């Protein structure tokens, strides 16, 4: 019985570790992720740093899930800044990544 509870708890923790926790806003859904070469004609609005939890308790989340959350969080924040495009400006590390924000599309 004790072994079954341990396995159930482990399975639940592994499921949580792969989950995406950040939800896109309506305006955040419209923000594109491009490369530096694709924004040469865009107007820079500045930079932002997106930070999300990379672990749930003592359990490390999957790198893919953390990257998804970091990017979604950055898209939401960029939309709040009036941006429609983000470009990663650093690598993601420990749930933290910097993005440059641009306005590329004309309203």
Kindly describe this structure:
- The strands form two sheets. A four-stranded mixed β-sheet has the order 1-5-6-2, with helices on one face.
- It has a single domain, classed as Translation Initiation Factor IF3.
- Strand 3 and strand 4 form a beta hairpin.
- About 12% of the residues have low confidence.
- The protein has 107 residues and is of the alpha+beta class.
- The radius of gyration is 17 Å and the shape is elongated.
- It is built from two helices and six strands.
Task: State the gist of this model.
The chain has 107 residues and is an alpha+beta fold. The chain has helices spanning 2-17, 63-80; strands at 32-33, 43-51, 55-56, 59-60, 85-88, 96-103. The protein has two helices and six strands.
Pick out its properties:
32% helix, 2 helices, elongated, alpha+beta, Translation Initiation Factor IF3, two-stranded antiparallel ribbon, 4-stranded mixed β-sheet, 107 residues
Topology summary:
Elements: H1 2-17, E1 32-33, E2 43-51, E3 55-56, E4 59-60, H2 63-80, E5 85-88, E6 96-103
Parallel strand pairs: 1-5
Antiparallel strand pairs: 2-6, 3-4, 5-6
Number of domains: 1
Task: Specify the CATH architecture.
Answer: 2-Layer Sandwich
By CATH, the topology is: Translation Initiation Factor IF3
Number of strands: 6
What is the string of SSEs from the N terminus onward?
HEEEEHEE
The quaternary organization reads as single chain
Number of helices: 2
- The poorly predicted ranges are 6-18
Give the biggest sheet: 4 strands, mixed
Overall shape: it is elongated
Can you tell me the CATH class?
Alpha Beta
Please tell me the overall pLDDT.
86
Radius of gyration: 17 Å
- In the sheet with the most strands, the strands line up as 1-5-6-2
Distance between the termini: 62 Å
Strand portion, in percent?
Answer: 25-35%
Helix content: 25-40%
Structural class: alpha+beta
